[in-house]
Structure formats: structure tokens, C-alpha cells
Amino acid sequence: MAAIGDRGTVTEASGFDAEADCQKLREAMKGAGTNEATITEVLAHRTIAQRQRIKEAYKQTVGKDLADDLSSELSGNFKSVVLGLLMLAPVYDAYELRNAMKGAGTEEACLIEILASRSNAEVKTICSVYKNEYGKDLESAVCGDTSGMFQRVLVSLLSVSKPKHTAEIYEAGEARWGTDEVKFLTVLCVRNRHHLLRVFDEYQKISGKDIEESIKREMSGSLEDVFLAIVKCLRNKSAFFAERLYKSMKGLGTTDTVLIRTMVSRAEIDMLDIKAQFQKMYGKSLYSFIKGDTSGDYRKILLELCGGE
Predict the structure, then answer these.
(1) Which residue of 1, 42, 186, 273 could cross-link 238, Cys pair, CB 3.0 to 4.6 Å?
(2) CATH number 1.10.220.10 given to 238-306
(3) What are the two backbone dihedrals, phi and then psi, of residue 171, each rounded to the nearest 5 degrees?
(4) Got the DSSP string for 111-144?
(5) Which fold has domain 18-74?
(6) Domain boundaries, the chain
(7) What is the mean pLDDT of residues 16-39?
(8) What is the pTM assigned to this prediction?
(9) What number of CA atoms fall less than 13 Å from residue 12's CA on the CB side?
């Protein structure tokens, strides 16, 4: 029943009673109109494990699926947040990946974010959930939707169970990196954090450049994005998410898909660290950014997931 991580804003509700919560949600959906405030109050303050218990209780007492009922009552971004909160973490990741590849065009940002930031064990689970839910291998879905070197990087992030050898990235004291993207790929996809952080330091010593600078100089587009994401996640995952949140809200318009996915998926893992990083990097609180950039019930539920100012 506990939270997935210990640095989240969403923690286990004490005195938890799945049946009582289930009753509250039923009431919130009864009659004309929906009481969004109650839905927020219940779902934003329970862990994923507790929400699963509420779903079970709902199924037993109402005989219907809670997600289906909420889906027909709600709309827009608020609905997306609520439905995301009801899913187990790997199920939500698989669902987001599937949506990113559905229809025309691909949301590369989603593929990059999820595959670069999840651990090997998490990726493995996402792959099996994807196959169960959608009857297709995640790897073949990704291959059908991407191409070239970018595709190769994503596939190697997916093939976590296969052994990899590390290519030497500096030979005879001369960093030959960048001239050969394949070497880059072999090294970065090893995903042994301590080893890689040492490699980055060594790279800096030899080339006099930070690895991120080299990536920006040598690459472009989605390939640049995925390599930068891998490096950033290894160095400081909460800073990676803080930056994504900032970019999703900065300037005109809001990239709601990124904002929702980050707030839902990190709420009970490391939202406290992401908030601290956000403040440190941008001199403003994440709370104030969300407040200024969103409205209505959507704003309210995101602010609850964010946890106080």
C-alpha cells in the first residue's frame, strides 16, 4: 500500500478505507453534473496501491469499472490526469507510449522521456505490460514508428536484458567520440550509471568539453534529444524532469501531455526533489508555474499533486 518511492508528494493516506472512498466517488458522479473537487480530494491523496484498492471496491459494489465511469463523466486535461492516476506505473507508461505512436505522427518526446528515464527493471515490466495490453511487442511498435539511428538508440534502450559490450570511447588519449554515432550508442546504452559518470569525467579531461556540449554540436533533432536525455537522467534525474516541466510551460501555450505525464508519473516517486531542482534552476516555484499556466479543476488537481508552495 505504500508509495513507490520515498521522495514523493503523494504519500499513503492514513486511516485508508477503500469502501468509503468508493462511496464518495459514486456520490461525486451521481445525478446531473460531476463533483470534480471530491474526485481530486480522493484520488490526488492516495497512493497508486491505494487507488487499486478503490478500483476493486468500486467493481465489487457498483459492478462497473471506475475508470470507465470516470471517463464518461469527465473531459479534457482533468480527465487525462484522473485516468493516469488510476493506472499502475508500468501500465501508465505503456499507455503513454501507445498514445505517442497512435495515428499519424509520433510524439518522439514521450518515447525519449520514458525510455531514457526508467530503470532496466522498469523497462522490462513496461515491455511485458505493453504486450499484454496491446498484443504487440513494444520493440516492433517502436521500429514501425521510427527510423535510422534514432530507432537504433530506442531499441537498445528497450533491449535491457541483452548483454552489451562497451566500446572504447577514447583511444590513445584522443577522444574519437562524435565522429562515430555508433560508438556513442554502444557506450550510452550500457546504462551502468557509475561507470558512465566516470566516462563523462574522463571525456571532459581528454577533450576539454562536456559530453552534453559534444552531443549538441555533433547531432540534431530526435537523436540529439535522446542522447541528451540519457546523459541528463544519469547525472540528475530530478533536474531532467524539472527542465521538462519548465519547457512544457514556458512561453506561449502549454505542452499538456508532458506536464500531465510528469506530474502523474513522478508524484509518489521524486516530486519533492523535482520541486527543489525547479526552484534552484529557475528561481521560481513549480507550484507558481503550474498555477499561472493552467486553470479550473485541471489546475487544482495538478497543484494537489505538486504539494504545497
Answers:
(1) 273
(2) yes
(3) -120, 135
(4) HHHHHHHS-HHHHHHHHHHHHHHHSS-HHHHHHH
(5) Annexin V; domain 1 (1.10.220)
(6) 18-74, 90-235, 238-306
(7) 92
(8) 0.90
(9) 12
